[in-house]
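Deliverable D4.2, example record:
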Amino acid sequence: MSKPIALSIALIAAAVLSPPLFAGEHGERREHEDHGRTARLSQADNKLWRAECSVCHVAYAPGLLPERSWRAIMDGLDRHFGENAGLDAADRKAITDFLAANAADRTDGRASRRVASAVPAGRTPLRITEFAWFERAHDELRADVWQRKEVGSRANCAACHPGAEKGRFDEDGAAVPGSSRHRG
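Output generated by the structure prediction step:
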């Protein structure tokens, strides 16, 4: 087989077998059919986690980071991205245990497995915005979009993704505030 034909076949296979991380996720089970396969982001929920973590931002789905990242975040709540988000010991342990048990590298959902596989060994990302898949998913957005008052930062998922609170980040439902176009 010639190199151009082999490359074409490889590119087509990659396009078919590597859908966007959260593309098309709908419904309460947060899954989508993707060429006969289903991608899932953990359905896990915890009232204490949701209540405490959503005070300042979206309570990010546990499947968006590996266990070591959640543990590092929870161990540093007194300096949580420039804020003191400290909790009493019992609440911190309960939330840490919940996040750890449902982290990307501890669940069997395809979307979470893809997140876990994107983290190099020995690296402990503290932000989902550090991932290459996040950059790819948002590469069409101009830098000024992140500075808009209605958006505020790359961490404000709910500004553009109305389903962010339920772990839904599909592009079809996304709308960039302050834009006449769907995605920026």
